[in-house]
Amino acid sequence: MRRSDRRSRPARQRLGNVVAQKHEGSRMSGLRERLGRLRSESVSQQSQPPASLEEEKIADATDQEGESFAVPKAFRSIGVAQKETEFGSFLLRKIEYSFPYRHGTHELADLHGCSPFLQPIAFRQNKKDEVIAPEHLLFLDTETTGLGVGTGNVPFMIGFGYITETAFVVEQTLIRHPGEEKAMLSYLLGHMKNKSHLVTYNGRTFDWPVLTNRFILNGWRKSGADPGHIDFLHPSRALWRTTLPSCRLSTVEVERLGIQRGEDVPGSLAPALYFQYLSDGNPDHLHGVYTHNEKDILTLASLCVHFGLLLSGRNDAEIIEASESEELFRTASWLEQHGEAILAERLFDRLGEREVIGEGGWSLALAARFKRSGQYARALPLWKKASEYAEAATAPKLDAHVELAMYFEHRDKRLDMALHYAEKALELALRRARLISDAKKRREEKEALQRRVARLREKISRASERKS
DNA sequence: ATAGACGTGCCTGTCAGATC
DNA sequence: GATCTGACAGGCACGTCTAT
């Protein structure tokens, strides 16, 4: 089906029902009460089945044939149909996003040009230099009954996406009971056959281990190496850990990819909504989960374009323009770490030219980088700017002054300047002491600076004695 | 709730330079 | 040349954070 918003009830209302019922459940004091409640609900359902569902089944059996037999209208309304395999059946939803299709700020058709640049962040055993082809990527997101990766956690919905010449396609599988799991997994395996890399968010730690366990429990033996993997959690953290309130996918997509979901069921509610569906058979509970999973997959594709562009160096100007210094520094460091030294250097250069130095640690970190590579002439102005900033701050950092003291003592050999910065650092340390609660740390810091000042004074006096 | 990846901070060992 | 001190890199332990 083509993308359309045909939700039968506002997600908020469904969400409210679940929350209300959870709250009610928490008041239950004992197991007997809960069992009693379940029993009475079950009886009431048997005596008074939801009219709409019964009608749907009848309608289904008469107006649908083959694949969709017995699929309730509330599923069919969002494009869900039954899929048959040699291992049995499960439910499948397929959505095509014809190009051009923009998800947030990125055009998904750009995956075609961006994918090869993702190689430095892709993990694949024994195939390090392999070129990543866009049509070999499988974007994956599962909805499971819990958070653990043990055998008790069941993926009830597997969403995956892939690119074709003309569209980005999302497919979502759903099992109505555990007996359908093997069919669902076999369908996923079929789609993994011609793919080289999974694309996920924390999927190396979560989705893939969960699925691996389910494959084993369903009788598949592990053969060969794991598929390649591009997991965007860690690159996202590398760039945005200090500038975003969190690096959850939902935060990243709003703050950095320009995506607004509107009403969205949080992933944490997915297990409860699935249990609601299992308990009363009403597909409406899962509409929000379908939408959530679908959007997660689209966001993965958008992340792919974002990082692909970053690694290609094609959007340097935009990044430099839009990024605050801290983020620009982290981006450059990340590029350097992934072997993109020339791209990184370009960003470091622009950063060094920036006049304003704020509270973030980027200026000192950049100076430290220049120092490590012996580029003292580039480190010096950064230390000086940072020292001026520190002197004006209420809770000053001493690092820049200490670095300057070391530089003038050991490199520039101007002991008077070294003493000046050491004394200034000591002065700042005494001013800052009131703000540090750790008494031991405060004392050690002060004593180290006093030793430095004393040593420099002695060195200066010896030098002047020698001259005279 | 669960497990793994990664960043941070601390500790230790090594090396280089300064001093006697 | 011997000794001392400071700088720095590497390793380890621990804490944080993410997925549902």
From TrEMBL:
InterPro entries hit by this protein: RNaseH-like_sf (IPR012337), RNaseH_sf (IPR036397), YprB_RNase_H-like_dom (IPR038720)
Basic residues compositional bias, start-end: 1-12
Keywords, in A-Z order: Coiled coil
Name recorded for this polypeptide: YprB ribonuclease H-like domain-containing protein
Coiled-coil spans in chain: 432-466
Molecular function via GO: nucleic acid binding
SUPFAM superfamilies in UniProt: Ribonuclease H-like
Keyword Coiled coil attached: yes
Pfam families for the chain: RNase_H_2
Region (Disordered): 1-56
Composition bias type Basic and acidic residues, residue spans: 21-40
Source organism of the structure: Cohnella endophytica
Domain YprB ribonuclease H-like as annotated: residue spans: 138-306
